[in-house]
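Supplementary Methods, section 5.1.

A reviewer requested that the exact input to the structure prediction be made available. We therefore reproduce it here, unchanged from the version used in the analyses.
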Amino acid sequence: MWRQPKAVWAVAFASVIAFMGIGLVDPILKPIADQLHASASQVSLLFTSYMAVMGVAMLVTGVVSSRIGAKKTLLAGLVIIIIGAGLAGSSQTVMAIVGWRALWGLGNALFVATALATIVSSARGSVAQAIILYEAALGLGIAVGPLVGGLLGGISWRGPFFGVSVLMAIAVVVTAFALPATPPAAKPTSLADPFRALRHRGLLGVAITALLYNFGFFTLLAYTPFPLDMDAHRIGLIFFGWGVCLAFTSVVVAPRLQHRFGTVPTLLVNLTLLAATLAVMAIGTDTKAVLVVCVIVAGLFLGINNTLVTETVMKAAPVERGTASAAYSFVRFLGGALAPWLAGKLGEEVNVHVPFWVGAGGVLLAVLALTVTRPYLRGIDAEEETKVEELEDEALAVSVSEA
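The structure derived from this sequence is encoded cell-by-cell as follows.
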C-alpha cells in the first residue's frame, strides 16, 4: 500500500496541509470571542460558513475538474485557501473572518473532492487501500492542525490563519512540480450528475447517515472549547490527542474491524459508542476532566467512522468516484454547517449541556438511517481484487516505471 507513485504522495502531502485547516482554528475560537467581543454562536459561524460553502461548492467540483483537469483544480483550490486564510487573519471583526472562512471553504471543496478521486484513481492496489492512504493524510492533518493552531494561537489568534497561508504555499509548489499534468475528462461532468447519483438509495442513505453523525462531530469540535474555557495552547494539546486517536483508528483499527465484522455492523456499533460518549459529555459538561477524556476517546470512534463511510461511498453507487464524492459531501457537510451554530445558540439560550444532548441525538439518528439503508449496501465487503491480482498490478506498475 505504501509503494505509490510520486503523484499520489504529492496529493497526500497537500491533503495533510488542507485538513490541518479543519482543526487549526479550534484552539483560537475562545480567544477570538474574548478579543473581538463575540458570542459563542457568532464565533461558531467560522465553522458554519466554511462547511456550508464547502458543501454547496462540492456540486461544482466535478464540473470544474472534468473541464480543466484534476491538477489545475487542485492548484486553484490551494490558491483560494491561501487567499481566504490570509485575509481572515487580517480581519478586524468576527463577521469578516466568517466571510473569508467561506472563501476558504470554496477552495477546500475544489481541493478535497478532487484529491480523493485523484488518490483513488492513481494509487496502486485496491480502492480500500487508497482510501486508507487518504484517511491517513486526513488523520495526520486533523491531528497536527490543533497543535499548530495552539502554538501559533498562543502568540496571536491571527497566527494560525497566516500559518495556513504559508503551509498552503508549500503545498502549491509540491503539487505543481510532483503531480503530472492531467487532461480534461473525455466526457465533462454536469451539475445534475451529483443529484442523479443521489437517486441510488445506498449512496443517499450513507450521505444522510454522515449528515446526522456530523451533528455530533462538529458539536464536539466547535462547541467544546467554550465549556473547557482554557487557553489556546491547552486546547490545541487536547485536540491534538483527539486527532492522534482519529488518525490511528482510521488507518490501523478500521480495516481490521471491517475485515473481522463487516463494514455496516462495525459502523452501527461505532456510531452507538460515539453517541454514548456525547451523552457522557452532556452529563459531565461542568467537569473539565470528563470533557477532556471524552474528546480524546471520541477521536477513536470518528477515525473508524471516517474511513469506513468514505470507502462505502466509493462503492455504494455505480457512478464515477468524483461524482459520488461530490454528492455525498454536499449532503454530509450540511450537518457540519448547521451543528456549530446550533450548538452555540443552544449553549447560550438554554444551557451548556443541551448541545451535547443534541449531538448525541443526531448520532443515534445516524444509526437509524444506516440501519434502514443496510439492505442497499449488500456486497460492499466483497473483495475487489484477489491478492494475486494485486501483486500482478504492482509488478506491472513497477515494470512500466522502470521501462
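The radius of gyration is 20 Å. These observations are discussed further in the main text.
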